[in-house]
Amino acid sequence: MCHISDNTHLIAILSKAPGHPLIWHQFLDELAQQLNCDTSALLVTDLMDSENTRFLFSAHIEKDYQEQYENKLNRLDDFNHFISKNPLSVFYDQALSETARKVGKAEFSTLDKPLYRFGVSIPCNQKNALSLLLSRSVAFNEAEQLQVKQTLQALIPALDEAIHAEQRHKIDSQLRHYLGGHFDSYIIVDHRLNIIFSDPIFGIIINQMDCVKISQNQFSMKNPAIEQRLLALIEANQSASIHNQCHSCQIMLIPISELKNLYQWECYKDGFILAFTHDKESDPMLDRLMGIYKLSRCEAICAQHFMNNPSISEIATNTFRSQETVRNHIKHMMQKMSVHSQAELMKKLITLTSL
Questions:
Q1: CA 136 to chain CA centroid, nearest Å
Q2: Was domain 7-166 assigned CATH 3.30.420.340?
Q3: Do the first three CATH levels of 7-166 and 285-353 match, i.e. the same topology?
């Protein structure tokens, strides 16, 4: 193992990784090579139910093994569960006491060979943690243990920043698609309007608004009647738009579950986005599609793109959606608009624009 770790290089890679899966893979690959490990992985660990633990990114781990882990071995991985309950500290599985390791490494093995693993976790929220795991089939000597521990400890701040930036990127891209364009800021709240995610810059913007208040991670509306309406909408798991409460902004309530292309494990999937934009005229075409044909907002936006260019791949690229999602939107649009071909759909959409 090289005794001079290029932590600066690894940190630089992490700074570019959010939103770029290939760069995440590059980081894991170079980290494994630098520390002389066989494999490396980022797992999203469900702290409540280990069977929901999933791979986020990995290097040198076969797809078949990943499926085996997600279907069975995640329940047996006591080491990952332990580090996830003890975040921001580096652990070597062989150095843990029998009590801490519970049943020991023998319960987590691959191809009948024991794994020797290092790990560190980053807390995401009360339910999820991100685990960085490095493993190999040969035990680490004392010098190697020290080197791996020092390297991982040095990477914790950059990894913490990068993984939260990854979450923001994923939500931002989906939110822009859902809203059909720009937003000024947003926060994520739970059923009681407790703030479970807030970007510091967005927090400053929201605090300057006249109609809302943020105090000790609690969001509230200055108008009690509007706040009660907001809570009722959240209880019903509905999306809604609240206009002109301070004569300058528009607030959109969006259940995170409506953002279809987030990661399967998304840490805030049970929460609600409150997106803030400056007041603007509504899009009459979107209003017609949603009002007359009961299209969802995502379907209506897809319809607008379809009119401009009916290519499924182009629509998917322009709306940050998978091609399968776009096909499903078009199928639902055709059903709701009572047409039987894409040609009929195009004709009906063009007719609607002339109204």
A1: 29
A2: no
A3: no
Say if residues 22 and 4 touch (Cβ distance below 8 Å): no
CA distance 155 to 287: 48
The class (CATH top level) of 285-353 is mainly alpha
Q: What are 232-258's pLDDT values in tens digits?
A: 999 999 888 876 555 456 788 999 888
Q: What tens digit of pLDDT does each residue of 262-309 get? A: 776 677 878 999 998 865 545 667 777 888 888 887 888 888 888 888
H-helix or E-strand containing 158?
helix 142-179
CA gap 254, 234 in Å, rounded: 9
Tell how strand 54-59 and strand 39-46 pair up. antiparallel
What CA–CA distance (Å, rounded) separates 165 from 162? 5
State pTM to two decimals. 0.68
SS3 at position 38:
coil
Q: At what angle do helices 284-292 and 297-308 cross, to 10 degrees?
A: 120
Number of H helices, E strands in the chain: 13, 14
Give the other-Cβ count within 10 Å of 264's Cβ.
10
DSSP letter for each residue of 192-207: T-BEEEE-HHHHHHHH
Q: Closest Cα partner for 19 from 155, 181, 182, 174? A: 174
pLDDT for 28 equals 97
CA distance 27 to 131: 14
Boundaries of every domain in the chain? 7-166, 182-280, 285-353
Architecture of domain 182-280: 2-Layer Sandwich (3.30)
Question: From its phi and psi, is residue 239 left (phi > 0), alpha (psi between -120 and 50) or beta?
Answer: beta
